[in-house]
Each structure stands twice: as structure tokens, then as C-alpha cells.
Amino acid sequence: MAITAIKPQKENEQARKPLARADTQFNIVARRFRRHRLAMVSLLVLGVILVASILAKQISPFERDYLNVESAAKFLPPLSRSPETGAMHWLGTNQIGQDLFTRLVYAARISLTTAMLATTLSTLVGTILGTLAGYFRGILDSVIQRVIDFFSNLPQLPILLILTAVLVTDPRLIPIPTFVIKFLQAIMLFDQEREARVVAALILILTLLGWTGVARLMRGQVLQVRERDFVEGARALGANSLAIITRHIVPNAFPPVIVAFTLGLAASLTAETGLSFLGVGIQNPVPTWGICWPLPRAICSSGRICH
Fold first, then answer.
1. pTM for the complete prediction?
2. How far apart are CA 133 and CA 129, in angstroms?
3. Average pLDDT for residues 162-189, to the nearest whole number?
């Protein structure tokens, strides 16, 4: 009798114990990421660059276009002080007396923001068109696929060089809404409207040439997801196409697009930097990493610091 009385009590205690929560995909990825030392170091470096670009106005010792007239054509060495203000030139000055540290910090803000906006817009366009093509198929799929084939077969580098050379020279050729210009001026700390228009034109060009890969990827994912049982169940329960796409298809088809976004961000940053370096992208006095790129070689060629 004693054994039979204790057994139900043990079963009740086991029933009261909380069930262990299953690890989500995010928790698994985050745990593996934290164990990867190189990934954590890279995250720290990227975080420092991002924070510095956000706080560019606060941490820069000089104004963006400040000119040290006395050090013009002299390439002041690092850790030298300005004869005018006494502020420290942490990385020295360039050939016209501008502080290199200030220019690099502002360049990080402009280059990273340009790449981020261009990649976000191209990912958004590719996701929408790829989802529509994969879900509805038929004539709409054929039309979108032909548009994708057309843009994919274009020689991107010559087209990119031509468009940027024309539109950056005269950015008013593209009618850009005023609120977009004001937004770019606010986040990139531009003083002149023309500077914001040049960046907006460059973002538009990078978006125009960068959405096709995401559209192809999203279309393939949607074609797989739309045939799964939970989508058929939602369709049988009377859910409309918009609800099926937003609640079931896009969330389950989107993870590969996140990977494509990270790769596209690097491609957009490289494209913006390369165009500025070649002289057909964002121009002086606006600082970008492409404009700052040739400075170390120019400093070493002058023989004032490296020898």
C-alpha cells in the first residue's frame, strides 16, 4: 500500500517540472558565433568602425573641410599639432592641409551609408519581384525572368562607369524627391544639396544593377516553399495570396536572402570605393574611402614621412 501511495506523488512531481525549451536556429547560430574567436574579433573591429562613423562629428578634431593653410603641400606627420588651433593631427594631413583622421572618419560614414542604402534597396526590389515571380508564375514569371535576363547580360562595369560619369556630373538629370535629399543630408552630414544629389544618383545606379541576383534567389526559394503542406493548409483555410506570402512564404524563404545581403553589401562598398577612386563617383570635397585610398602612396612618394 505504501508503494502505491508514493507512485502517484512521483508522477505529479515529474509533471510539474518545466519542459526544456528547444533551441531555435538563431540561438544555435549565435552560440557557434560566440565560440569562433576570429569572428568575434572581426565583429569588434566592425563595431568600432561603425561607432566611429556614427559619431564622426563628435570624435573628429577638425571640421570635415578644414584646411590647415600652413601645412599645405607639406604632409604633416602623424601626432603633429595644428599651428593654428593646437589640435592633434592623429594621422597627419594630406597634400592640401586636411586632417586625415577626420577625412577617414567622415569617409567611413559616407561610404558605409551609401553601400548600406544601395544594398537594402536592391535587396528589397529583388525580394519583391522574386516573390511575385515564384508565387504567381505564369506570364508574370516569364516577364520578370526576361527583365532579369536583360539586366544580367548587360556589361555592368562599362554601364556603371558611363552612368556614374553622366549622372554625377549633372545629378539633376534624375528627379529625386526633396525628402530624399533632406534625409541624405541629415544622415551623411552634407552641407550642400548637390552633394546629396550625387550620392542619391550613385545609390540609384547601384540599385538598378544589383537586384537581379536576389530576385533569382528569392524566386527559387519561393518555388520550393509554396508547395509545402503548411502553405497548402493556409490556402485550404481560405487565406488570400497576400496573407500567404507575408505570413508563410517570405519568412521561410528569406534566410538565404540575408546571406545574399551581406555579400551584396561588400560588393556595393567595393563598387562605390572603386568608382570614387577612378574619379567617376563621389568627388572632392566629399570624403570617401575611394578618395582617401591613394593618399598613403602620395605621402610615401613625397618622401616626407616614409623616409
1. 0.83
2. 6
3. 86
